[in-house]
Design brief:
The structure holds two protein chains of two kinds. By secondary structure, chain A is mainly alpha-helical. Helix content of chain A is 69%, strand content 0%. By secondary structure, chain B is an all-alpha fold. Chain B has two domains: 28 residues, no CATH class; 233 residues, Orthogonal Bundle (MetI-like fold), CATH 1.10.3720.10. In chain B, a hairpin with a 7-residue loop joins strand 1 and strand 2. In chain B, helix 12 packs antiparallel against helix 15. The N and C termini of chain B lie far apart (53 Å). The chains are: A mainly alpha, B mainly alpha. Chains A and B meet through helix 1, helix 2, helix 4, helix 5 and helix 6 of A and helix 2, helix 5, helix 6, helix 7 and helix 8 of B.
Chain lengths: 291, 297
């Protein structure tokens, strides 16, 4: 919302005013920027400090080169600990979840977007209903159900309930409604089956919308704590968030690993973010598309 | 024959939506239904359930710890509404200003915290709010001649700490919501207002705010749910579900304590139902007050 202050009557005064506005805005946002970056700076700094210091002094911005070293990083990469196992578990879970959620949700979304059928509107209301009700409410019955189905302590307890993901279906359906109906019809003329049309014609042109949803679902998978924590009992299956959480007790050299490990859990995401910024922003704010 | 059936144009739509229908029935409707039944049962993990009528509800509504959890969650939710709607909106308006330098840089920078998990954010803030004299928190209040304090043992400070995490992680995202809302506002409105001699503040009040209403309602709705369902932030901040005098206990935290830690599944399910009802009532009231259900005029 710009006010046209640079009027012809007072060019010099207008210019100074603009400059002052620019500088005030900039100063304000730089202060805000520093506040936002502060926790990142603190954790980066702490990753060079011995864990014992963190336990003793807490997290602060003291910059003391004499106590700082690369020891934590060396320990992270060469020490005996479970960090990379957690990392690997999280990575596998992320890959499987993203691929399955995208495929299954796109499949469902195409059904909603391309056809007219009985109960269609009713079923779509169900999609919205799932998006509206927080998952936490269902924690107890879901926990019982997963136990009854014999999925406790298995990744399937995390993967299967989330495959047809409501928000992803919603987003894809929105995207697919813009695809002209002539396209599937052309496929039918060429002798494609209904499913062939989806896999050969629709799926390839959906690619642009995949990036945003891959990021949204990937982020959710990578950062998910509560549900995996409840259903994965075996330490060998722990994901990175669960593993890091177990380190939060100040015993042994846990804090050496906790800090540098936390740093390393966000580092790859930041690198990805720098490369695919617009997709990240599109994915993470997808909810408001047609809010 | 079966193949012909499955491949017909009449049946195909149902095949397409089948994965959703199954997910909906098995992992949503059934659990929701069993949540209701469980709330009328005394049920321990692996034991035969016993019907007890409304006992769970009766017990819950007089359960002091539960009421404490509800008040914590509601205070937290109100706090996030007060902090995470007006400020991101203001920042969005300021950053959208044509005199602003480095818009994209700031947008991306403010977005970064939302990429960190609750575990990492919780760890960082827990240690920044440490009770040692040298923790960042005590250093900062030391500048004002106060302290040292034990912030995570005080109800006020730990609520503040939880709200600070929320602000840190979500200000940038909400700002982006408002920015995309601002993009949809026709600049002609502002030009017309300028001709009528409106100042920037009046334009914000009479043009920007009303036209951002759909975005605001969206952010409000998700914030109410997220605020009431908050748990993991508190779990990380207090390194477990047991905070001193339950200052960090939330509704979902109580559900978790009863269901997982004490395996009282029936009682925990009741907590879930109450949460559902509270969240629905608040949100429906909010949507009615905002006129969402009215016909477009």
């Amino acid at each position: 919302m710009g006010t046209a202050n640079t009027t012809a009557k007072d060019p010099v005064g207008g210019k100074t005013k603009v400059l002052i506005t620019r500088i005030l805005l900039l100063v304000f946002f730089i202060i805000l920027f520093l506040l936002v970056m502060l926790p990142f700076y603190a954790i980066t700094l702490a990753s060079f400090k011995p864990g014992a210091d963190i336990i003793k002094f807490g997290l602060n911005l003291d910059f003391d080169l004499s106590s700082m070293s690369l020891k934590n990083f060396v320990y992270l990469f060469t020490g005996k600990h479970s960090y990379w196992m957690w990392f690997k578990n999280s990575l596998i879970l992320l890959l499987v979840q993203v691929v399955l959620v995208l495929l299954v949700s796109a499949f469902v979304a195409y059904g909603f977007a391309a056809y007219e059928f009985r109960f269609k509107n009713f079923l779509f209301v169900c999609v919205l209903l799932i998006m509206m009700v927080p998952f936490e409410i269902l924690l107890m019955p879901m926990y019982v159900l997963v136990n009854d189905l014999g999925m406790y302590n298995s990744f399937s307890a995390i993967i299967i309930p989330g495959m047809a993901n409501a928000s992803t279906i919603f987003f894809f359906r929105q995207y697919l409604t813009s695809i002209p109906k002539a396209l599937p019809d052309a496929g039918r003329v060429d002798g494609c089956t209904e499913y062939g049309i989806f896999f050969r014609i629709i799926l390839p042109i959906m690619k642009p919308s995949f990036a945003a949803m891959a990021i949204l679902n990937g982020m959710n998978s990578w950062n998910n704590l509560l549900w995996p924590f409840m259903v994965l009992g075996d330490g060998k299956k722990f994901t990175l968030p669960i593993g890091l959480k177990t380190l939060l007790t100040p015993y042994g050299n846990n804090y050496d690993l906790l800090i540098v490990g936390s740093f390393f859990a966000i580092f790859p995401i930041f690198v990805l973010f720098l490369c695919f910024q617009s997709y990240f922003i599109e994915g993470m704010t997808a909810g408001a598309v047609k809010g | 024959m079966l193949k012909r059936f499955l491949y017909s144009k009449k049946v195909a739509p149902y095949v397409f939506v089948l994965p959703f229908v199954l997910t909906f029935l098995i992992f949503w409707l059934y659990p929701l239904g069993s949540s209701f039944t469980m709330s009328f049962q005394e049920r321990m993990m692996g034991q035969q359930p016993k019907w007890i009528g409304f006992d769970n509800y009766q017990k819950l509504l007089t359960d002091k710890v539960f009421l404490k959890a509800v008040s914590n969650s509601v205070i937290y939710m109100i706090g996030t509404l007060v902090l995470l709607i007006p400020f991101p909106m203001l920042f969005a308006v300021l950053i959208d200003n044509k005199f602003m330098w480095g818009q994209n840089f700031f947008k991306s920078a403010f977005f970064l915290p939302s990429l960190t998990s609750v575990v990492v954010a919780g760890t960082i803030f827990r240690l920044m709010f440490g009770e040692m004299e040298t923790s960042l928190f005590n250093q900062v209040i030391g500048l004002f001649g106060a302290g040292p304090l034990k912030p995570l043992k005080s109800a006020g400070w730990s609520m503040a700490a939880l709200l600070i995490i929320a602000c840190w992680r979500w200000t940038g995202v909400n700002m982006l919501y408002f920015l995309s809302g601002l993009k949809g506002i026709d600049t002609e409105y502002y030009e017309a207002a300028s001709i009528d001699g409106a100042n920037s503040w009046q334009k914000f009040l009479y043009i920007t705010m009303p036209l951002l209403k759909p975005t605001t309602i969206y952010v409000l709705t998700i914030s109410i749910y997220a605020g009431l369902a908050m748990f993991t932030e508190s779990l990380m901040m207090f390194n477990g579900n047991n905070s001193p005098k339950n200052i960090g206990l939330t509704i979902v935290g109580y559900l978790y304590r009863q269901g997982i830690e004490k395996s009282k599944l029936g009682y925990a399910a009741t907590v879930g139902i109450v949460l559902l009802v509270v969240a629905m009532v608040i949100n429906i009231a909010q949507l009615i007050m905002n006129g969402t259900f009215k016909k477009e005029d």
